[in-house]
Amino acid sequence: QVQLVESGGGLVQAGGSLRLSCAASGRFSVYGVGWFRQAPGKEREFVAGIIWSGGTTYYSDSVKGRFTISRDNAKNTVYLQMNSLKPEDTAVYYCAATTIAFYGSRRYDQAGSYGYWGAGTQVTVSS
Predict the structure, then answer these.
(1) What's the N-to-C CA distance of the chain in angstroms?
(2) Residue 46 parent element (H or E)
(3) pLDDT digit string (tens) for 8-59?
(4) Of residues 101 and 47, which shows the higher confidence score?
(5) Measured distance CA(98)–CA(108) in Å, rounded
(6) For residues 41 and 3, what is the distance between their CA atoms, to the nearest angstrom?
(7) How far apart are CA 25 and CA 18, in angstroms?
């Protein structure tokens, strides 16, 4: 089992920055961690992902160049640094983890590839 707890959400003006944290615990060997977000009335979408061993990162086109995902192995924590925030970044942000490698139809950008989810943290960007 893997438990995930997100923190760091809040209200920020457009152009500002926030850093989200995802603390993982439990008896596990995590393969990958992803950040997803869901705005009201919209489907949950992939934001960024990282392979725990090796640190390979992935980003959606909408956040590439503005967001950075990273991990701290000693703290079992994944971070999402969000810069140049826009009102359209407003959403509940979820951290997700998987203990199974991505291959074939199991893609890093699909929510169904992750078996463990946090409760989410609200990010609101005002214009």
Answers:
(1) 40
(2) strand 45-51
(3) 999 999 999 999 999 999 867 889 999 999 999 999 999 999 998 888 999 9
(4) 47
(5) 9
(6) 27
(7) 23
